[in-house]
Amino acid sequence: MGYTGLEPDMQHFMLDDIGYIAHSEYKHWLWARKGRQIIVGDPVCAPENYAQMVSRFLEKYPQVLFVQASRVFAEVLQKMGLQVNEFGYETDIPIENFSLKGKHRAKLRQWQNKCNREGLIVRDVSISDYPDKKEIEDLSKEWLKGKSGEGLGLIFRPLRLKNEQDVRYFMGFIDNKLVGLAVFDPIYSGGKIIAYYHNLDRIANAAPHGTSASIILAAIEVFKNEGVQYVALGMSPLKLHEKQVWELPGFHLFTRKAFWYAFEKLSFIYPFQGNASHKKKFNGEMKPVYLSGTKGTNLWEVFLMLKAIGML
């Protein structure tokens, strides 16, 4: 979540020589008069310092909601006495030996073949040098029209029409007309890019079915040649493991049941099932993510979290 945590509206709690926590305050005159600090992802520090970072943060900000926490961070929070619930999973695609062979990625092959037949060409472009910014803006407006869950400012970064350091833009064209784009944010380790995070898509209504996947596949081939380790497709919210094997002791059972119901029935809030189904086609590695809070994970706290991240 590195680049998301560096957005202009984020605050940063620093501990010298240890790391920082990116956070944002949510206040509402009725729902949350005292406010909640919202932390998306893990602290930016070594895992052995998570507990110290959180303890010091809670001294200053006693009312906190943690969203999209990794398993390692969730275990630290649980050991500190906070209630933790499974919130979904993230999908990573290791790309060194990535291949479309086999039954598990058959749908991706089908989509790619269809897009190739219809003349889709994918290019790695410099967004600042793209000559027709209005074409991109029109595509974005068309894509966003009627979409649910597109206000998730704490989860996804907005589309920007100028170059940012190491951010990559892949665009799909048919007959030289822009029909789709995907934006990838860098993930660093030791000062080097080890992966890319698929931050957002914009796909034209008239684009062939499978355009989004085809653009991602083209990007994977480029990244593979550059020695990148994996592509992160991001979170599938509320897609829970059927047998509770990812839950931690003390989780809120009613909240878990509510997540199941929302995933199955409330697609008008956010396309939960479509999101999970699309990522499943890539047959990547699934890693659970968690929700926690200093006031527990009851439905009221979940409601405040969903309001804060823009899902409601």
Largest sheet: 11 strands, mixed
Strand content: 25-35%
Helix content: 25-40%
In terms of per-residue confidence, which ranges show pLDDT below 50 for 5 or more consecutive residues?
none
Oligomeric status of the shown chains? single chain
Number of strands: 11
Mean pLDDT, nearest integer? 93
Structural class: alpha+beta
Distance from first to last alpha carbon: 22 Å
Strand order of the largest sheet: 1-2-3-4-11-5-10-9-8-7-6
Tell me the radius of gyration.
20 Å
The number of helical segments is: 8
Shape: globular
How would you spell out the order of helices and strands? EEEHEHEHEHEEEHEHHEH
Task: Count structural domains.
Answer: 2
Describe the structure.
- This protein folds into two domains: 163 residues, no CATH class; 133 residues, Gcn5-related N-acetyltransferase (GNAT) (Aminopeptidase).
- The protein is 29% helix and 31% strand.
- It contains eight helices and eleven strands.
- Helix 3 crosses helix 5.
- It is globular and about 55 Å long.
